Amino acid sequence: MAAKDLVPVPDILSMRRVIAFSPHPDDNEIGAAGTLARLIEMGAQVTWVVASDGAMGSFDADAGPSIVDIRKKEQEAAMAAVGGTALEWLGFHDMTLSRHEEELAGRVYQVIRRLKPDLVMAPDPWCPYEAHPDHRTLGSVVATAAIMASFPLVHPEAGPGVDAPSVAFYGTAWPNTFVDVTALFDRKVAAIRAHESQFPGMQADLITFYLRAQASEMGPKAGSELAEAFKVLSPFHLHFYPDAWQS
Ligand SMILES: [Zn+2]
After folding, report:
1. How many CA atoms does the CB half-sphere of 182 hold within 13 Å?
2. Closest C-alpha among 73, 83, 79, 64 to residue 22
3. Strands across the sheet with 177-180, in order?
4. Which terminus of the chain has fewer CB atoms gathered within 10 Å of its CB, N or C?
5. What's phi and psi for 9, nearest 5 deg?
6. Which element (helix H / strand E) includes 211?
C-alpha cells in the first residue's frame, strides 16, 4: 500500500455535526450548497458561520453600509433555500481577515469548541492562484483549528479542548471526494440567485451555467450526473504528512 493511502479519507456524508465556514456571504453556496443540502436531508446539524460582512461586494463606490444589510438578508435567504436554519456571523469587516488573523482564530476556536463538529468546511487555502486574502486566511485558520482545537492550552480563552474535526475544503484543485448533488442542484441554483446583489441580472445565469458545467464534469467521478468536489482530510493528514496533497 502506498504511503499516501495509509491514512483513510473521511466519509463526508457520514458526518452529523457540520460547521460550514464562509469568508463572505455566498461562498458556502458557491462551493458546497448541494452537499450541505444533502447533509441536512440526511439529518446532519449544519451551521453556517460567515466570517466577514461582505461590505466590499459592490461596484458602487457610494454603496455605503446598506450593502451589509442587503447581504445579511441575502445570506439568510440563500441558507433557507439550501434548507439550513443556523447562521452565525463573526463580524469582521470584508477584506480584513488577514490583518486580524489571531482574533479570527480565537473566534473560530470558540465556535468549534462550542458546537463540537465532526466536520468543518472552508475554502481550500492551498488552491493555486487563489488571490483573495480572506479566502486564504479563513481556510488556513480553520485548518489549523481543526488540528489544534483538541489542545486546551491553545487559545484557552476559547473553551476546553474538543475532539479534532475532519476538514472538507471546497474550491479545491486536488479533490478526493465527489458528492452526488443531482437531485439537489435546483436548491443550489436558488441559493445562488438569492445573492442578488452579487449576481445581478445575467450574472446569475452565467455563474449557474459555469457551476453546472463544473458539476457535470465532476458527476461521473461520483457515478452521477452532477457532483460537487472537495478535498476531505482528517486531522492526521493536516500535519507533517507530505502525501496529503495526493491523498
Ligand atoms: Zn468570498
Report:
1. 12
2. 79
3. 86-92, 45-52, 17-22, 119-123, 166-170, 227-233, 177-180
4. N
5. -80, 125
6. helix 202-218
Domains of the chain, with CATH numbers? 16-239 (3.40.50.10320)
| Rounded distance from Cα 95 to ligand 1 centre (Å) | 9
CA distance 75 to 159: 28
The letter for the amino acid at 40 is I
Residue owning grid cell 472538507: 168
Which amino acid is residue 58, in one-letter code? S
Angle, helix 185-194 to helix 66-82, in steps of 10 degrees: 170
Q: What is the pLDDT of residues 114-135, one digit of tens each?
A: 999 999 999 999 999 999 999 9
**pTM, rounded to two decimals:** 0.97
Express each pLDDT in 156-181 by its tens digit: 999 999 999 999 999 999 999 999 99
At 137, list the grid cell.
486566511
Cα 210 to averaged position of ligand 1 atoms, centre (Å): 17
Centroid of ligand 1 to alpha carbon of 54 (angstroms): 8
